[in-house]
Design a protein that fits this description.
The chain is 34% helix and 17% strand. Helix 7 links the parallel strand 4 (123-126) and strand 5 (147-154). The protein has 16 helices and 13 strands. The protein has helices at residues 5-10, 12-15, 21-29, 42-52, 85-96, 114-118, 131-144, 172-175, 188-191, 197-214, 260-263, 282-290, 304-309, 323-326, 344-355, 367-374, and strands at residues 32-36, 56-60, 101-105, 123-126, 147-154, 157-163, 223-228, 233-238, 279-280, 296-300, 316-317, 335-339, 361-364. By secondary structure, it is of the alpha/beta class.
Length: 382
């Protein structure tokens, strides 16, 4: 391929780098990258790859833009709230570099479509935020012999590596053979994330992609980079391929994609939703707060910082982390309604309380988010 005069001007700062030059820029322009996720990590990755001239960028994302995304997902603007993230990403990339081909896959990556989608690209970059998709991406990349540029973020901490057994390194399963139990690792929606953190980790991932495309430098294959933003410290761990890995080891037992929701211990959604006997609705919570004669006590197990954002009058704050020390303040013979942000932590609290003999503890389904949606719109959502 030949670079046009406009492309020479656009990529001139690459062209004068001896490690890139005209030949290297042609490699970048003829490469293709699949970006799984157009969120916190996917935003800086896609934007810098587009600016660098990667010829074809695939975007896999089925979600829509939410106000809470704007603190870190720089592919999207205020006017994009409610739009498809994939469509918004394509528009932003086209504005940044119209010479890049953007292919959107407005769908959830699954065992049924992953092999077909990933096979179309040279390099895959993991910008996901959940374990089933992370293991699915890893397995499909190993089976297809594609480099998987990995990154993850949480609160103030980030990780990055490149998994590529076909290039002599380990895969994600060598590092994490088993997923954590469901609910053990909070999501960014539950635990929060510093807005600039995905920018730092995403830029590291984009750097690794460009080095792979150029065939230059020392890649992160066989290395795991750990970053702590509060301490502004990087650490590096050496990774080795596990000879007993069921996917990339000496005697692999995984030869095709599996059910990753089941593998990660996430129960399948029933065809007909059934009521959880340990849950009550926000309408039930409202009745309990309005009528003291019902004898129901409502507690909030969110963190104090969340309580300061918003709370419901008449509700007692007992953070989940303090519950093992403070449950004796509660009456085991009283009906207790427990709520949190979305209903996840409150179910954990109810499980703990029942183990301590609280027979009448119930979780408020949907938490304060559902309260905002269905009872009081003046309560802010976060």
């Amino acid at each position: 391929m030949q670079l046009s005069n406009d492309e020479i001007r656009r990529y001139s700062r690459h062209l004068i780098l001896p490690e890139v030059g005209m030949a290297g820029q042609k490699k970048i322009c003829s490469s293709s990258v699949l970006c799984i996720g157009a969120g916190g990590l996917g935003s800086p990755i896609a934007m810098y790859l587009a600016a660098a001239g990667v010829g074809k960028i695939g975007i896999v994302d089925f979600d829509t833009v939410d106000f809470s995304n704007l603190q870190r997902q720089i592919l999207h603007g205020t006017e994009d709230v409610g739009r498809s993230k994939a469509e918004s990403a394509k528009e932003t990339i086209a504005s940044l570099n119209p010479g890049v081909e953007v292919v959107i896959h407005n769908t959830r990556l699954s065992s049924e479509n992953a092999m077909e989608i990933i096979a179309q690209y040279d390099i895959v970059v993991d910008g996901t935020d959940n374990f089933p998709t992370r293991y699915l991406t890893n397995d499909a990349c190993v089976l297809l012999k594609k480099a998987n540029v990995y990154g993850s973020i949480f609160r103030f901490d980030g990780q990055a590596s490149v998994f590529a057994p076909h290039l002599g390194g380990p895969c994600y399963r060598c590092l994490y053979p088993e997923p954590p139990p469901p609910g053990m690792v909070p999501s960014c929606a539950e635990g929060g994330v510093l807005g600039v953190l995905p920018g730092i980790i995403g830029c590291i991932q984009a750097t690794e992609i460009l080095k792979l495309a150029l065939g230059k430098g020392s890649s992160m294959i066989g290395r795991l980079l750990l970053f702590n933003a509060l301490e502004m410290k990087f650490r590096e761990l050496k990774l080795r391929r596990d000879p007993k890995c069921p996917l990339c080891g000496e005697h692999p037992t995984i030869t095709h994609l599996i059910d990753y929701e089941q593998f990660c211990g996430i129960p399948a959604e029933p065809a007909v939703p059934t009521a959880n006997p340990d849950e009550v609705s926000v309408q039930d919570m409202q009745k309990a707060l309005k009528d003291p004669k019902l004898g129901v006590r409502v507690i909030d197990v969110r963190d104090p910082d969340e309580w300061q954002i918003c709370h419901v009058e008449g509700v007692t704050l007992v953070p989940l982390g303090n519950l093992p020390q403070r449950f004796t303040e509660l009456d085991p013979n009283q009906t207790l309604y427990v709520h949190c942000k979305s209903g996840v932590r409150s179910l954990k609290a109810v499980k703990f309380l029942k183990e301590q003999g609280f027979k009448y503890a119930k979780s408020v389904k949907g938490g304060i988010q559902a309260w905002s949606d269905e009872i009081d719109h003046s309560v802010p959502k976060y």
